[in-house]
Amino acid sequence: MDIEQKQAEVIDHFVKQASVLKGPALVPLIVEATSNPSLFAFSEILSVPNVLELEGTENSVYVGLLRLFAHGTWSDYKSNADRLPQLSADQVLKLKQLTVLTQAETDKVLPYSQLMQELDVTNVRELEDFLINECMYAGIVRGKLDQLQRCFEVQFAAGRDLRPGQLGNMIQTLSDWLSTSDNMLLSIQEKIKWADGMSESDKKHRKDVEDRIEEVKKSLSLKDVIKHIG
């Protein structure tokens, strides 16, 4: 079973559970979801009405916890730790895995120094072990560890939940790309048309030259006949 199919089944399980639980009963479910080793997307759980009803209650911090795991990073947690539940070791691991995915969204070459700072890792060996054992073996990223250049070259990274407003930006980017593609296609078609026209012109020019050669040949032949007669 590939990672996408497995994650879809895990998401479906948690969404169904969240749909039948209410109030404080959702807290252990949210903790379980944010600790699950196979789950890396949380927006569907976050959108369940029963979960959103926790807003404004004593358990509203768990909605914030889900938002953190949907869109945030380890640095975000450290900046807001006083307003969020304390994380377990499994949740810390999960959030650091998600942090790597966030870094890989925008950069395909990740300097070790940047990753060590984002993950609170103190040495290269610890960082490489984390990338290999907790990220690549988990199937969420693929890439090459470049010890000489001290960087991680990303070849694939699983996508995270879309942040608020990100979908609109993506649609605009795709729209701009389509517009650019249309303009490029039109330009290519015009060049093909021009090349076809040049080809026809070349053919006509060649035909004119060949006709002139034939005329010269005939003229020369006619002069030879006249000369012999004379």
From TrEMBL:
Which InterPro entries does the entry mention? COPS7/eIF3m, CSN7_helixI, PCI_dom
Family per similarity comment: Belongs to the CSN7/EIF3M family. CSN7 subfamily.
Protein name as it appears in the record: COP9 signalosome complex subunit 7 isoform X10
Residue ranges occupied by any PCI domain in the UniProt entry: 1-159
- A Pfam family for this UniProt protein? CSN7a_helixI
Which keywords describe this protein according to UniProt? Cytoplasm, Nucleus, Signalosome
Gene Ontology CC, one term: cytoplasm
Q: Does the keyword Cytoplasm apply?
A: yes
Q: Which GO terms of type biological process are on file?
A: COP9 signalosome assembly
Which organism does this record belong to? Answer: Punica granatum
Principal subcellular localization? cytoplasm
Q: Where in the cell is it found?
A: Cytoplasm; Nucleus
Is this entry keyworded Acetylation? Answer: no
